[in-house]
Design a protein that fits this description.
Helix 1 crosses helix 3 and helix 6 crosses helix 10. The strands form four sheets. This protein has a five-stranded mixed sheet with strand order 4-3-5-13-6, sandwiched between helices. Strand 9, helix 8 and strand 10 form a beta-alpha-beta unit. The protein is globular. By secondary structure, it is of the alpha/beta class.
Length: about 300
């Protein structure tokens, strides 16, 4: 399997048109078709489905697309860096992800890390919050990207890389839906929805917030995922208090409204966080922590900018 074949595959995967791919590669259309067919024979899988009207990636093709991009990146890194500059990080760093909706900033952090350490093989794996904590405990992953409320109070080092304010979340038909700001005391008669308290400390935080309005929240439903909570809010079953960072990933027509905590400004010490164990001997760990800290310092210079534990 040659680099030329991989680049031919990537070009066709991008434009999904043999004629356009041939023009970009300065090859004939039959030549591109022959290269792709040869690649499929070597891999013993079908990478594209072809018809007279369209070209589409198969599921195997989509999987191979991820591998091919990483292969080209590693090849380019070998050409542009000296061995003495990268030998210390010729290792693998694995990051577990608990919820894709919480990782808008993680992509930029990873890009910064890859640019600084191009030969470090970075791997991503997805888990639910409970599985992720177990993976960090057993060193299956070096870091876990998780919402700060899902982190147990003891046993982990963590650093919030994407701090976010808490917002009232309601459906568009709710009596408060058109408000720009809501006082916490106005929610004393509301039904609340949240993620299971066994996998999140959000319940405790919501209780603390509601105490500022002199009432105890009534939780009518706890469920296993944030997306399900948002779905239930959309049905009108209740309201929620959630991070603003989740708004971009919300698939429902919901309103995110600022909370007035009685004159007290929210201190942004929570949000999307990275967790790790202090006994991890992977040489890439402190370098990735540096990238996380520098990202926070550059993007949130005035908010809770403590140096994480090493």
């Amino acid at each position: 399997m040659f680099l030329q074949e991989i680049k031919c595959f990537l070009t066709l995967a991008e434009c999904l048109n043999f004629t356009e791919a041939a023009n970009r590669l300065y090859k004939s259309q039959p030549g591109v078709s022959k290269i792709i067919s040869s690649l499929e024979e070597d891999l013993e899988v079908k990478l594209f489905t072809r018809s007279t009207r369209s070209v589409r990636l198969t599921s195997a093709g989509e999987h191979f697309l991820v591998i091919a991009k990483e292969f080209v990146r590693q090849c380019e890194a070998l050409k542009s860096h000296k061995p003495q500059e990268i030998s210390s990080l010729s290792c693998t760093l694995t990051i577990g992800i608990a919820d894709l909706s919480e990782n808008r900033c993680l992509v930029q952090i990873i890009n910064n890390f890859i640019r600084s350490h191009p030969l470090c093989n970075l791997s991503l794996r997805q888990y639910n919050p409970e599985e992720l904590l177990q993976a960090v405990d057993s060193n299956v992953v070096d870091f876990g990207a998780i919402i700060s409320y899902a982190i147990p109070p003891n046993g982990y080092e963590y650093y919030v890389y994407d701090p976010s304010p808490l917002m009232l979340v309601v459906p568009p038909t709710h009596r408060l839906a058109d408000r720009e700001r809501v006082c916490i005391s106005e929610l004393k008669d509301e039904n609340f929805l949240c993620v299971f308290r066994s996998s999140s400390r959000a319940v405790n935080r919501i209780q603390e917030i509601c105490a500022k309005g002199n009432f105890r929240p009534k939780f009518v439903k706890e469920t296993n995922s944030l997306s399900t909570v948002f779905m239930l809010i959309a049905t009108g079953m209740g309201v929620g208090i959630h991070f603003l960072l989740h708004k971009e990933a919300c698939n429902y027509d919901l309103r995110f409204i600022k909370l007035d905590l009685g004159g007290e400004e929210q201190v942004l010490k929570d949000g999307a966080a990275l967790i790790w164990k202090n006994n991890n001997s992977n040489p890439a760990v402190p370098h990735f922590i540096d990238c996380v800290y520098n990202f926070r310092k550059q993007n949130f210079p005035d908010q809770y900018n403590e140096i994480p534990s090493l």
